[in-house]
Amino acid sequence: MGKLEGKVALITGAARGQGRAHAIRLAEEGADIVGVDICEQIGTVSYPMPTAEDLAETVALVEKLGRRMESFVVDVRDAAALKNAVNDGVAALGRLDIVLANAGIMFQGLGEGRDDEAFRDAIEVMLIGVWNTIQAALPTLERQKRGGSIVITSSVNGLKGMVAGTNGGNFGYAAAKHGVVGLMRMYANYLAPQSIRVNTVHPTGVDTPMLTGFHESAAAADPALSAGLGNPLPVSLIDARDVSNAIAWLVSDEARYVTGIALPVDAGMVNK
């Protein structure tokens, strides 16, 4: 029996990358999944974003492990649609115990004149989208009176000012990833009396499609700053599963008294 047997996890950005890895890892521990992803392109994002087929593949991988997954094509910027998806997922799976606010985007090769648009996209997806996710899940968590665990995906860029490049999307990324730490601390205090724990994870670069072309773009924009982005431990990018393993611990009873922390999974980057 896994350490999350019988629990249900909501995961945003579940179609691929870290979100898919989290869905698989939690399913391995016995959790069923409510998975959400936008499954369409955002105009300021240059790399191909996930598709409905990607989300369907995540569902198949979870089901292959003998767990259930309800999937929804929803933009985390759309608070009403997200609430409906969460409610429908809970109705289908019976409960909600874990919330992973994971959806994120990156900006490399941004076209000239799109700084303001990219900054807003970053804030809306990775800060407002986190707020929307937690607000959509809270009524169920509070009504159940069984506690719960919320983990927000931040970044090493939520603890240090180190995003290479000067485009507006990168500024928005760093601002959002710092901002969710404030949300985490507020929610951790607010929800502690209900035994709902709230934490952030802060990965270094993760080997996912989201980072396609990032290092090349960073080097072109600011070679000096880019040269300082290497991890102290001898790995250029960590695996998504490295982050998933940390999250699987954070959301389990093994971490039942861990709340309000910012946990780096960063090959030593924050300490650098």
Please characterize this protein's 3D structure.
By secondary structure, this protein is α/β, with parallel strands linked by helices. Helix content is 43%, strand content 14%. The chain contains 8 helices and 7 strands. The protein has a 7-stranded parallel sheet, with helices on both faces. Helix 1 packs parallel to helix 2 (52-64). The longest helix has 30 residues, at 115-144. It is globular. The chain starts with 7 loop residues before the first strand and ends in a 7-residue tail after the last strand. The model has no long low-confidence stretch (mean pLDDT 93).
Number of strands: 7
Spatial extent as radius of gyration: 17 Å
Give the CA-CA distance, first to last residue: 39 Å
| Number of discrete helical segments | 8
Coarse shape: globular
Percentage of helical residues? 40-55%
| Structural class by secondary-structure content | alpha/beta
Average pLDDT number: 93
Elements, N to C (H/E): EHEHEHEHEHEHHHE
Q: What fraction of the residues are assigned to beta strands by DSSP?
A: 5-15%
User: Major sheet: size, sense and barrel closure?
Assistant: 7 strands, parallel
Numbering strands along the chain, what is their spatial order in the largest sheet? 3-2-1-4-5-6-7
